[in-house]
Amino acid sequence: MTSPELLPDHRLELTTVVANNTMNRERGLTGVNGYARELGLDPVAHLLARSAAPRWLDLCSGEGLALRQAAGRLPDAARLTGVDLVGPMMRAPLPPTVELITASVTTWTPGPPYDLITCVHGLHYVGDRLGVLTRAAGRLRPGGLLVAHLDPASIRWADGGPAGRFVLAALRDQGFAYNARHHRLTLTGPRTVSLPLRYIGADPAAGPNYTGQPAVAAHYDRET
Predict the structure, then answer these.
(1) Mean pLDDT across 82-109
(2) Is 48 exposed, middle or buried (0-12, 13-18, 19+ CB in 10 A)?
(3) Which of 49, 80, 140, 165 could join 189 in a cystine, given CB atoms 3.0 to 4.6 angstroms apart?
(4) Mean pLDDT on 93-115
(5) So what's the pLDDT on residue 181?
């Protein structure tokens, strides 16, 4: 098996498959491809049941449409934060409860703990996606929920061999649950997550994943 050329995240984020990704840019809160359907829950209902001042962090948020739409249904004390590599292109003013940050999710440091952390099909374009999940798990309020789409087939060993089964077992050992039908990874936290893996780089030429869109393969070594 020929080993692919692997890029560090700062170079990966300059590639076309990552920097110009449009999958999430116009995804709203509801509808056929909305957040409620993709996440298997109504984010607003979840937040309202959690706190009078709920906090939602959406990673790879695109234009932040779901956050904008949720803001009108949540109390003024809510805080909704979106983080995206490209950032919003819309000129419409943001609701006062919404903050959209242009940054890499692999290096951005989350703020105070959240009631809900989501990443809708965003990890497909992230290099060290396990690192992102590890940090997010520790930034939940007690009983808070993390929901993210994960494609195990796009997680590989250094030589390109499949590592998905090993990774899912390691994640389950740390308290995550995985719905294979919907490719959804969930965790109730907060948790300190430790995975026996070391990120070594990503392959932006991996080709389409289960969504039919070009995606990124993340490569790891076992820690010794």
Answers:
(1) 90
(2) middle
(3) 140
(4) 93
(5) 96
pTM above 0.70, yes or no: yes
Q: Identify the pLDDT of residue 148.
A: 98
Report whether CATH 3.40.50.150 matches the domain 9-222. Answer: yes
Which element (helix H / strand E) includes 167? helix 164-173
Say how far apart CA 31 and CA 119 lie, in whole Å: 17
How many CB atoms within 10 Å of residue 141?
18
Q: Is the dihedral of CA 195, 196, 200, 204 positive or negative?
A: negative
- Which residues contact residue 159 at a Cβ distance below 8 angstroms, ignoring those fewer than 6 apart? 1, 3
Q: Which residues of 101-138 are buried (b: 16+ CB within 10 A; e: fewer)?
A: beebbbebebeebbbbbbbbbbbbbbbbbbbbbbbbbe
